[in-house]
# Entry
Amino acid sequence: MFEKAVGSAPPTLADLFLGFARISISGFGGVLAWSRRLLVDEKRWMSASEFNELYALCQFLPGPNVVNLSVMFGARLYGLRGAVVAFLGLLSPAVALMLAIGTLYTRYGELPRLRGILAGLAAAAAGLIIATAARIAEPLLRRRPKPAHVIAALSFIAIGVMHYPLPWVLALLVPLSIAVAWAESS
Amino acid sequence: MPSGFGLLSTIAMQFALLSLFAIGGATTAVPEIHRQAVELHHWMTDRQFSELFAISQAAPGPNVVIVTLIGLQAGGILGGLVATLAMCVPSCALAYAAFRVFDRFKGERWQIAVHAGLLPVTVGLVGASALVVARAADHDWTMLAITLATAALAYWTKVTPLIALALAAALGFAGLV
# Structure
């Protein structure tokens, strides 16, 4: 799958850890762009098309996409050891930072001076996720009305409005949606 | 609310299950995390949830760290670590296994159908995330205005979202929120 190296020497395990650690701490506003920049443009550990292919596979799988990407990239180089090292590189700096900030939040989050700041941040963060939702809905909405629109609406209502448990909703909607896509592909 | 080992195993089980149901990444899991953490287990209030979500968005790193913050709020440092590992390990194990077999099936009809079929469900889920987070965060018209302005900025321009977060924090600091 990934036989051809793109140019520079393959990274060692230490390179792998440090590379993903850098992605972790510089990944403001989405780690994906930073992963691409480091893995493809800067280090040349993989080509752009290899990256796209691997990322498409990660989106296909459940769980955090970029974390899956780190595991697969590490596994491709050094098997299980590489997977664990890349995973730890990507997660440990970000998790350590979150544990520190979260502890401060638990202790000081109710201080009057901080209340306004946190409320403002929360309102803006809600806006960011609306923009994300709009962006991924766009290609779907551009097509003429289709069963896919109904499925998207059902998934939105079941989870966002009715607050039904996710596993049940997915157990119903995913097979239905795949069956529709299967029928349309013939 | 259970404590100690009982609490940690609850956290581990919730997030390990969620790991396998988070199609399309951590963002689609946000409504379910909210349901578990606020509605079911009462680990935190709506407001705290929206603030922790905001912190996870403002910080660097993969957005799965929202889970770290939720676990931390529920069960301290250990809770944060357990939640993060539980959210990542099952799906990573799957990724590790899939990476070996996936290539063989590339381009087959069923695979294309699975991919196309997951998209509308994911779109609905991310929309639901937006609704859940906005309802938890916005308590008056000013906050709703900040939310909508940020959404417009992030959707129609290419400026970094950190600017919107910083402006909103500044408004809050000035006592306007």
